[in-house]
Specification:
Blueprint lengths: L3 H11 L3 H8 L3 H8 L7 H13 L2 E4 L8 E4 L2
Antiparallel strand pairs: 1-2
């Protein structure tokens, strides 16, 4: 499961706003902002929609491993 900081990093990598991610994913911008800032949880279905929208934009999510914490990178 992806983490809130990964969503912020993914948006930054793609150069998109919360509003644009909301439009791409169908998840309310207030829900995204609340989750990203740690002021609330998110339904698994909405998190999956965010992940799919960001992956369609070219983001690859990187899990935590021995080399470091979770992150993102862009497809080449």
């Amino acid at each position: 499961m992806i983490a809130a900081p990964q969503i912020r990093m993914a948006r930054a990598a793609l150069g998109i706003s919360v509003r644009e991610l909301a439009e791409r994913s169908g998840v309310a911008d207030s829900t995204i902002l609340r989750f990203e800032t740690g002021r609330g949880g998110i339904l698994a279905a909405n998190l999956n929609r965010l992940q799919l929208a960001l992956e369609e934009g070219g983001v690859i999510f990187i899990s935590t491993d021995a080399g470091g914490g979770p992150g993102v990178r862009l497809r080449s």
